[in-house]
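Q: Convert this sequence to structure tokens.
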Amino acid sequence: MFDRLSSSLRYAAALPRYAAAGLLTALALSLALLGEGVWGAAATYSFFLGAVMLSSWIGGLGPGIVATVLGTLAADYFVIEPIHSLTFDASRLVQLSAFIAIAGLISSLNGSRRRAVDALATERAQLETRVAERTAELLSTNDILRTEIDGRTRSERNFRGLIDAAPDAIIVIDDRGRMVKVNDQTERMFGYSRDSLLGQDVEMIVPQRFRAAHHAKRERYGDAPATRTITGDLAAIRADGSEFPVEIRISPLESSEGRSIVGIVRDVTERHRIERRQRQLVHDLGERVKELTALHATGRILNEPGTPAELLAGIVNLLPAAWQYPDITNARIAIGGIDVRTDGFEATPWLQRAEFKTVDGQAGIIEVAYSEARPDATEGPFLAEERYLIESLAGMLRAYFERRQAEEHRVNLVHAEAARVQAQEANAAKDQFLATVSHELRSPLNVMIGWTQMLRAGQISPEAASRGFDVLERSVRLQAKLIDDLLDVSRIRVGKLRIEKRPVDLATLAEIAVDAARPAAEAKKVTLNVAIARPLFIDADPQRLQQIVSNLLTNALKFTPECGSIDLRFERADASAQIVVHDTGIGIAPDLLPRVFDRFQQGDSSTTRTHAGLGLGLAIVKHLVEQHGGQITAASPGAGCGSTFTVTLPLLARETAWMDLPRAVPVNRMLLSGVRVLVVDDEADARTTVGTILEQFGAVATIVASAGEALDAVTRSEPHVLLSDIAMPGQDGYTLIRRLRGLIDSTRLPAAALSGYVDGDSKAQALEAGFQAYLAKPVDATLLARTLAALLDRGES
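A:
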């Protein structure tokens, strides 16, 4: 019954401590929820760690463990995403495990501290009880002695027995400072025999450094009205010369022999040892808190965003405060190409080091050094706990770099997968593009072959024949446009698209482009509404600027249905010129809008699409606009709602006079009358076609198939002008013109190159070799005739 009652009382006494643990955990949860989104995950765990620390400080290990369990569940359920659920995935287990480990360590340390404090308090209470009891006994004995002395009713033997039974040394000192009586404990405490002490000056048991002060105060000891304790840094000396701390109580003693002093000397060596142990425990607890703070701060920093160098720089500045002498402590962390250190760090004889290596073989090091010597502890200049701390930090850094490597590996895998998917998409786009190119080239070829066969048969009416020639011309121009677009894209990709800028009026070029597009618009019954502000002087390549407007118009016409409309505005906007093309066409789907300027991009690339083309026009426009220092944007409310393209180009700072581009004038069919033209081309159909064109303008064409035949023809009869292909077997056009220039200069025999190579490098190479003009195949007949006439300084009058 008594045991059960005792157990119930113990549980009742422990209940407030566990209730305090629950209340502190609830308070930590309230603070975490109150600052949700403000404190951050690190501060949230700090609240629960504070609850654990206070619970274990107040109640010991049990309440600390209860606070740890409650804090873990509360953080997982109310704070960590996803909230209101207990989910133990890998990252959450790492966080909760770190929290539980730190909380358990705190509870264990506080539990140990509480047990040590309780044990110390118990021992001290027992010791004080014993002292009080012994003191009471001594006082009682002293009173009895005084009574016996006063009344001389008790014997000296009884007095001696009581004195000798005392646990402290009791010494009776006469008015001259001599020891006249001592008890047995005095002999044991000081190591002298009774005979050696009696009659000797009491200063024989006082250390030399205290004797002067003792001698000065001894005269006043007899004036003390009652027993009093002498405190302070007191020590006594034994017969062997060793000193030990003491506590002394003195009281006056009246006897027939005169006034004496009774001194009670207590050896407090054990008490001092316990006090030192207590102070050491408190110090060690403070050091552990510093170490835990450093580990917690390191973990928090390693989970923050930033480069490894930035994070390590933050960590290295935290380390000195975690060591026992922070004022003279410096630290360094190095791994790979990273080397961060505190100001003033240098290797000294008082250095502590921890090394670590990641799974990929990367070696790292943490060094902590004192800048000056300090007394060695049992383990050396650094505590054993500091060795555990630096090893723990090395482990955390190793885990951080391994985690970072794993994340980089995962990102690389994601990038590799994305690159693989992108490559597959690129291959699919390439195949689709090649199929589209084949279709776009074969379609006009099919038309051309059909009409050629019908015209050759001669069984169609003159009206049908005229329509057939129109179809053939459109098909040829379409193929030329497709080839030009492909070549422009190729030049853009290699950075060889040339822009030859000069001051031009955008308004004039706009009129030319719109006039060229009107026939197509009228054929489709599309209304063109044009508004042009004059003048709009910009620094641009006229040909490329006209190409920008033409491509935008062609794109709008392609996607605008019959009876639709296209609005074009060429206007000023502050210091810029704007080209706005708005159509009522099929519009642009939202998913296509961000990619509308990509190469080969089409809204519909299937075999059932309703609009032809390679998807290059807008990509070329974007590049040309950017090369002119402008920008282009596309907007559309959605499919079926039309679209708007806006081009912005910088205006010139001041208006510049500029002549209009020449308008088309009727060609003079006798422009080359009587001109002897030497035509050189290895393709029979090509040279026959060119010869026929020249004859229509009145020229006399001599047609040869190679450079050697051309040289022979020049030797026989010198022509007025040379028209030569570039790519020919044996000797090309460059070789031919160089050999001719060795014989005849350009004033006697001007020359024009006619080639299928249309890149800027080929043109520059031809002009450098000795040609005076460069024409690209397929060539317009009128342009060919006018170019040759210009070389001969012939006008069209």
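The chain has 20 helices and 22 strands.
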